[in-house]
Amino acid sequence: MRVLSLAWEYPPHVVGGLGRHVHHLTEALAERGVENTVITFSDGSSQPAETVGSVKVLRVNPYSMRYPDFVSWVHGLNTLITERAKSAGPFDLIHVHDWLTATSGIALKHIYRRPLVATIHSTEIGRRVNLKNETERHIHDLEWWLAYEAWKVICCSNYMEGEVSRNLLCPCGKIAVIPNGFKAISGSGTGTGTGTGTGTGTGAAEAAFDRQKYAREGESIILYVGRLVYEKGPHLIMEAAQRLRRDDLKFIIVGEGPMRTFLRDLAAKLGVNDRVSLLGHVPDSLLSSLYKNAAVAVFPSLYEPFGIVALEAMGYGTPVLASDTGGLGEIVRSGYNGMKFTCGSPDSLATTLSSMVGDGELLGRVSANGRSCLSGYSWSGAAESTLDLYSRVMSEYAAGSWKPRA
Amino acid sequence: MKPIINITWEYPPWVVGAMSQELRRALPPAAKSFPISLVVRGDGDGVTELDGMRVYTVAQSVRDSPHVLAHAHALNIDLLRGACNAYHDAGGAQLIHTHDWVSSLAGAYLSANTGVPLAVSIYTTEVQRAGGLPSLFSMAIFDIERYCLSKAKWVIAVNEVAALRLTKDYAVPPSRLIPCKGSLATAYKRMGVSR
């Protein structure tokens, strides 16, 4: 089977989790005999065409044109992707990831009359809560259009299936739930995947970890890893820290984002700045050490389509406390492989965290079960399910009359 | 005989501005000599016969856009859908002919992926309309015009002012420029399109 994958990010150009998702999935599909060509973005610093592993990668550079804003930039990128598809060679099926490559996928579907599969990683309504302006409504319309034109839509969690069905009016029969995989990238733990580390570091650096730089003796490290954006809920940690009034807990915040200054000011305002450290991006080796030394990893997301950070923490054996929302709520089973608190409630977060920290038996149990549940999230499993979906789409396509005639 | 696929964002009764009237004057006479399929934004997706042409209407898929650029990009994917139906229904096309930048991306996409030559008619350019390139918006539209013109085998200047601006501002070589002094049928004949 020959698949043309369209994604706005792919290594070495990685913005968030989408690029890594497409990278791991296409590699795992290639191991199963799928000929994958990815058309993606380049800023001019990467090769316009190369084969990475078994995946053919074609890149287009949108900076050959000028744009007044991000939406226009995305449309320009899609213009160049559509033109570049001719050089990809023949393909049986098109696979688009999110609205960012929706229009090129829709264009190529109609030009070549080939089936279109779309993975919708998140939605604009979910990210923004409400659609407040024309740009957000435009992106929402593109998401609806992609779901409408797609033969099948892939979502990473049951939560996202509901969101795509409800917000994009996509029939449930068109949606397949295929959880993301989880891949280890360092020898210091089971893996990382959040993009909050810098990708540097060595085992020696990890061995040199000085715990006292981050927490005093007797203090338990409560670790947050993620982007500092509202939807990830880092402000709830500050509010919970204030409610707890415990001197034996040290909150370590790893990650960057537009909320950093706000969070620093909030910690001062709430009087918890001596109990909270904002570290920004950290090397993988330090991140690994922090995970291993943390009593609990907290993920207070308000919106989380999947929640790969929870798997990352489980890989290190760190007990997880997550908000009961989205994909996080599906990964974590309270009392089994972690604990959950009421989404958006700093009181619930504070109470649950306080009860966890003092319960050694609970921490040991959720840590062990967390590690063991990782086997359910592999890229090989995701590729098997995706390949099965491709096969079903192609047999339905073969039985139909919608074919190229030219 | 494979058709000439004309792509436009307006043709009566779907009117935006003056271009629809110009096309109403130019296309039906040409359709007497050449097979023409017309793709136009309409009230819904459909196929009909009008003025001697097979007309493919397309509905707009996107309702909200922050500005005309985003609107035009999305509209061109809708126009492309109609053009692809015209292309596959006829088993191919002799020529893809677009009208100004607002419909030329659709033609460029289809031409790039099928090898069917592209002709772009220019009525006015962004440099003319905006009196230069005073904003990033104008520059972005100028870049789209330039991109589409670079993909065209022929550029039809609908008037002498446009012909002058195309050579001066967009560096369109005279060998690709067809001044449309006579009828559209004459221009098609010059391009070697079969009747």
Short note summarizing the structure:
The complex is a heterodimer of chains A (406) and B (195). Chain A has 406 residues and is of the alpha/beta class.
Give me the CATH fold name of the largest domain in chain A.
Answer: Rossmann fold
In terms of DSSP E residues, the strand content of chain B is 15-25%
Helix-and-strand structural type of chain B: alpha/beta
Helix content of chain B: 40-55%
Show unreliable segments of chain A: 187-202
Q: Order of strands across the widest beta sheet of chain B?
A: 3-4-2-1-5-6-7-8
- Note the overall shape of chain B: globular
Please tally the helical runs of chain B, counting DSSP H or I stretches of 4 or more residues. 7
Helix and strand composition category of chain A: alpha/beta
Q: Report the span from N to C terminus of chain A.
A: 22 Å
Mean pLDDT over the full residue set of chain A: 92
**Averaging pLDDT over every residue of chain B, what do you get?**
95
What's the structural domain tally of chain B? 1
How many strands, what sense, and barrel or not for the largest sheet of chain B? 8 strands, mixed
Tell me the radius of gyration of chain B. 16 Å
Count of beta strands of chain B: 8
Number of helices of chain A: 15
Distance between the termini of chain B: 8 Å
Describe this structure in words.
Residues 187-202 of chain A have low confidence and may be disordered. Chain A is built from 15 helices and 14 strands. Helix content of chain A is 42%, strand content 17%. In chain A, strand 9, helix 8 (234-244) and strand 10 form a beta-alpha-beta unit. In chain A, helix 11 (308-315) packs across helix 14 (360-372). Chain A folds into two domains: 2-181 and 378-399, Glycogen Phosphorylase B (Rossmann fold), CATH 3.40.50.2000; 203-376, Glycogen Phosphorylase B (Rossmann fold). Chain A has 406 residues and is an alpha/beta fold. Chain A has helices at 17-31, 70-84, 102-112, 124-128, 134-149, 158-167, 203-207, 234-244, 260-270, 284-293, 308-315, 326-331, 346-357, 360-372, 379-399; strands at 2-6, 35-41, 49-52, 55-60, 93-97, 116-119, 152-155, 175-177, 220-225, 249-254, 276-280, 294-299, 320-323, 339-341. Chain B has a single domain (4-190), classed as Rossmann fold (3-Layer(aba) Sandwich). The longest helix of chain B is centred in the middle third of the chain and has 23 residues, at 68-90. The chains are: A alpha/beta (406), B alpha/beta (195). The interface between A and B is large, with 35 and 39 residues.
